[in-house]
Amino acid sequence: MKILVTGSAGFIGNALSLRLLQRGDEVIAVDNLNDYYSPSLKRARLARTETYPAFQQYQIALEDRDAINQLFQQQQPDRVVNLAAQAGVRYSIENPQAYIDSNIVGFMNILEACRNYPVQHLVFASSSSVYGSNSKLPFSVNDPVDHPLSLYAASKKSNELMAHSYAHLFQVACTGLRFFTVYGPWGRPDMALFKFTQKILAGEAIDVYNHGKHQRDFTYIDDIVEGVLRVLDQAPTANPNYIATPTELSRSHAPYRIYNIGNQQPTELIRYIEVLEDCLGKKAERNLLPLQAGDVLDTHADVADLVTDFAYKPETSIEVGIANFVRWYRQYYQV
Predict the structure, then answer these.
(1) How many helices (H) and strands (E) does the chain have?
(2) Which member of 7, 173, 223, 261 has the greatest number of CB atoms within 10 A?
(3) Hey, is 203 helix, strand or coil?
(4) pLDDT tens digit string along 259-289?
């Protein structure tokens, strides 16, 4: 198939592009290569995929409607995976406009292009952040998600609502994936594992928020990519017999679905740090701090629907995943 992947220089987008190419798909890649974090890392990721003849890279911002429309018209992709977004909870407090431009306006442009140049399936990245102040664990796709704690989370919830309206009005088959704390080789420098590794190796203290007592459902990058591939290959269909109930919020009469992709094994941050210390062979000096504004206290994914519909759930342990990340980090940065 011809797959358009946005965020192709990003952590998940590049790993997905590589897998698509390896299995024989053609990848139309879109990324604006912004400087939210080092563009050099993004270019290094792209070097992994640019050697494939079936890979075409375009430097376009999602909010550039004319450029997006022109690309869809020219390439006529079969399916689309929208992973481009302004990421980060903390940055959404400092620079909210970036999230409106990329995550709302940009996503609207993708939806319109999928409508005007019909695609078989649009898969888009949502986030576990949409669960906000929910305290019932594990988080289910059938839980209400009406109390986001950051503009980033609100933008992801908005994407889900926007996609549903296009599935209903224009029969654009859409699947939203709520990712849970993705980590692994080639990861983002603004994420905890990357920052902790950098500081521990440099002999600097690490900031440990909420005294390390909060839990995250850390999900390894390869598990995320496998989940995206399985979902991508099976577009949702309309169900005229659907009846809305409080236990069926992730489904619809329209060709639309929502899934969690998480490891289903939440880990306390302190334990995560201990595993990292073991892999590095070095102890961390810790600055114990309160929970940050906008942060969810705990995350824990219920992936029952993913198992039922695709016979799949992530399973990589943090011991294996962190060791793989440290091996990559030492090689990439020669430390």
Answers:
(1) 12, 13
(2) 261
(3) coil
(4) 999 999 999 999 999 999 999 999 999 999 9
Contact 17, 2 (CB under 8 A): no
Q: How far apart are the first and last CA of the chain?
A: 40
DSSP 235-275: -----TT----TT-TT--SSSEEEEEE--S--EEHHHHHHH
- Residue positions annotated with a catalytic role: 152
CATH tag, 2-180+221-263+300-315? 3.40.50.720
Please give the Cα distance from 2 to 232 (Å, whole number): 12
pLDDT digits (tens, 9 = 90+) for 34-91: 998 999 999 999 999 999 999 999 999 999 999 999 999 999 999 999 999 988 777 8
Rounded Cα distance between 318 and 324, Å, is: 10
Q: Are 10 and 36 spatial neighbours (Cβ–Cβ below 8 Å)?
A: no
Q: How far is CA 99 from CA 129, 149, 151, 183, 190, in A?
A: 14, 14, 7, 22, 16
For the four alpha carbons of 177, 180, 184 and 185, in that order, the dihedral sign comes to positive
Two structure tokens written together for 200: 């521990």
